[in-house]
UniProtKB/TrEMBL annotation:
Ranges of biased composition (kind: Low complexity): 166-201
Region annotation Disordered: where it falls in the sequence: 166-206
Native organism taxonomy: Eukaryota, Fungi, Dikarya, Ascomycota, Pezizomycotina
Keyword Signal: yes
Cross-referenced SUPFAM superfamilies: Cupredoxins
Keyword vocabulary terms for this entry: Signal
Alphabetized PANTHER family for the sequence: EXTRACELLULAR SERINE-RICH PROTEIN (PTHR34883:SF15), SERINE-RICH PROTEIN, PUTATIVE-RELATED-RELATED (PTHR34883)
Protein name: Extracellular serine-rich protein
Signal sequence extent: 1-24
Length: 230
């Protein structure tokens, strides 16, 4: 056996850390449709998901006016007291809005989120990332029914980018009117972004990622060989 179990597990740890850095997962969440171009409904799909630190939640908007804001479990339909995010209200006339809202997950604590448009959260337009047995979406939605919605003053905690854009390339502008904090169905504060074409820097980043992936394959291959020899 050419590797001790200890060095082998150490190598696996290093590789695992490497993997988590290179392969942050993007979790797609559709806003107001079941994701199948079905009828517009007051839902997030999926309404429940898990995500690791560094993963990206990507909200795709359909029909009419909707938004997403983070909430605390014990205060449904209202903004989280610390941290969180708000996409601004998206108005979508086409089947799917060309822009998405991206949020990078900071912790594995439960993340409850809701739509700030009047009445939507009370009607069940909410979702959760990493629920626990104590903090469930069923309980959140039950408590939501008797609340009044409010929204953060402006977009924060994430970025509005063109769907399919490389991450980190956003120079998203502040939404045109973000002073209204009361929820509204009028679409006030709808997010607008000018998407930028990929730049040379992004191409370099892609090449860098390809190189990292290549070395990752080498490392995994080495581990595989070591395991076979052990
Ligand atoms: C993650 O951290 C950033 C920077 O501290 C903060 O702006 C954002 O609100 C956090 N996101 C969540 C989901 O708490
Ligand atoms: C979440 O979505 C699924 C699939 O549409 C649905 O069956 C379930 O009732 C929803 N959960 C809650 C708590 O609304
Ligand atoms: Cu909504």
């Amino acid at each position: 056996m050419s590797f001790s179990t200890f060095s082998l597990s150490k190598l696996a740890l290093v590789a695992a850390a490497f993997v988590s850095q290179v392969t942050a997962t993007t979790v797609r969440i559709d806003v107001s449709t079941d994701g199948d171009a079905g009828p517009t409904r007051l839902v997030f799909t999926p309404n429940t998901t898990t995500a690791a630190v560094g993963d990206v939640l990507e909200y795709h908007y359909h029909g009419a006016t909707h938004s997403v804001a983070m909430s605390d479990f014990d205060s449904p339909c209202n903004p989280a007291k610390t941290g969180g995010f708000f996409s601004g209200v998206f108005s979508t006339v086409a089947e799917e809005n060309p822009n998405v809202f991206r949020v990078t997950v900071n912790s594995t604590d439960p993340i409850f989120y809701y739509c700030t448009v009047a009445g939507h959260c009370q009607a069940g337009m909410a979702g959760v990332v990493n629920p626990t047995s104590d903090q469930t979406l069923v309980a959140y939605k039950a408590n939501a029914k008797s609340t009044t919605s409010s929204a953060p003053a402006g977009v924060f905690g994430g970025e509005v980018v063109a769907a399919g854009a490389d991450s980190g390339s956003s120079s998203s502008s502040t939404p045109s009117s973000s002073t209204t904090s009361a929820p509204s169905a009028s679409g006030a504060g709808s997010a607008t972004t000018t998407s930028s074409a990929p730049s040379a820097t992004e191409t370099e980043k892609k090449n860098g990622a390809a190189t990292l992936t290549a070395s990752l394959v080498t490392i995994l291959g080495a581990i595989g060989a070591a395991v076979l020899m052990a």
